[in-house]
Structures are given as structure tokens and as C-alpha cells.
Design goal:
209 residues; mainly alpha; 11 helices; 75% helix; DNA-directed RNA polymerase subunit beta; DNA-directed RNA polymerase
């Protein structure tokens, strides 16, 4: 990590709505995998909690663009792809905890599954609770059961998708454009949840590379 920090990049909702993963050229893909393994190994090999906290808060100081260059185009069924998605979730939450908690709370109310409980947010879920949840999930990658952290992020994504869909239905009546934006966001969260669930299965099988 450098000593010179720049202002963190604001990763807007519009960018999230158009986010897509993909395959990198071979050399860049190798760098993505090597850097992801090095980061996770460093966190898991240390007894210093300050190291883990610096890794959790990396994007607060450096912005998300540095990670995007490394991992954003990696396969979702890979370690760098999974790390990118969870860091992206944290950035989105911290940049707008009010809107995020609103979507999550709505999703927890309309979704007839245990996903809200799996994600681990207290109810009701306000801005402080949703921000703490983002840190807990990311910290779990470095100190807890890696697959469980992926499952929690996947469950979070499904709750968010349900919330966005529900609010989109309401918005369609008065503000169709807003409804369309929320529908697109719901789709992105659905895809994110599917990717993270697949990554968790691969990790449990010892195949997440």
C-alpha cells in the first residue's frame, strides 16, 4: 500500500447498474489471481487485527478504482471475481447507507426466505446497521469461514434485489424512469447473488481459484 492516498472514487449507482464481469487477457488474469490470493493469505496469516482492518478499509483511502483495475473483469467464479463483488457491495453501502438500508429493509419485508437472517443485519435495518454489516461480511473473508462470508453477501444481494423490485413497482405508477432504474438495479443484485453463491460452492469444493 502506498503512502500517498488519493480521494476515494465515488462508484455511483449508474456504474453499478452497468457493471459486468468478464475474462481478462491471460497476463492480466494471472495478476488478478495472484493479487487476490496474496491479499487473502496475508490477512489469514497474521495475528495483527490492524492488518485486517486496513484491508477492510482499503477502498476508503485508495478508492475502488485500484481494485477495479485488478479484479473487475475477472470471472465471477474466481477468487478475484468474488473479492471484487464483496468490495463493490461495501463501497455501494458506505456511499449511500440511507438508500441501501431502505432497499434492504423493504426487501426483508417482502422476501419470504431466510436471506435477511443469513445476511446478518439486525432488524430494523438502518444506515448504521447496514454499514456495520458491510464491514462484517468483508472481515469474514479474512478472519472467518470464507464460504460463509460469500453466502452472507449473496443473501444480502437477494434481499436488495427484492427491495429494489418492490420499490420499482411502486415507482412505475408515478415515475416510470425511476422504476426502470430500480428494476435494472434489482437485476444486477440478482446476478451478484448468483455469482457469490456459485463462488461459495466452489470454495467449499476447493475449486475457487
Amino acid at each position: 500500500m502506498t503512502d500517498e492516498f488519493h480521494k476515494p472514487t465515488q462508484y455511483s449507482g449508474d456504474k453499478f447498474d452497468t457493471f459486468e464481469g468478464g475474462e481478462d487477457p491471460a497476463v492480466i488474469m494471472r495478476i488478478a489471481h495472484d493479487s487476490a490470493h496474496a491479499l487473502v493469505d496475508r490477512a489469514r496469516d497474521t495475528d495483527d487485527p490492524a492488518v485486517v482492518e486496513r484491508l477492510v478499509a482499503y477502498t476508503d483511502q485508495h478508492g475502488v478504482d485500484a481494485l477495479a483495475e485488478l479484479w473487475a473483469r475477472s470471472s465471477p467464479k474466481s477468487l478475484p471475481g468474488a473479492l471484487w463483488r464483496i468490495y463493490l457491495i461495501r463501497v455501494l453501502i458506505r456511499q449511500d447507507p440511507d438508500a441501501t438500508s431502505y432497499l434492504f429493509q423493504r426487501g426483508s419485508e417482502v422476501l419470504a426466505t431466510i436471506d435477511a437472517a443469513v445476511a446478518g443485519a439486525p432488524m430494523p435495518t438502518g444506515p448504521e446497521e447496514i454499514t456495520a454489516l458491510a464491514d462484517q461480511i468483508l472481515r469474514g473473508l479474512f478472519t472467518g469461514d470464507f464460504a460463509v462470508a460469500l453466502d452472507r453477501a449473496a443473501a444480502f444481494s437477494r434481499v436488495m434485489s427484492a427491495g429494489a423490485t418492490s420499490i420499482a413497482d411502486d415507482a412505475d405508477v408515478t415515475t416510470p424512469q425511476r422504476g426502470s432504474e430500480l428494476t435494472t438495479r434489482a437485476l444486477r443484485f440478482t446476478e451478484m447473488g448468483e455469482d457469490l453463491t456459485a463462488a461459495a460452492r466452489l470454495h467449499r469444493a476447493g475449486s475457487l481459484e
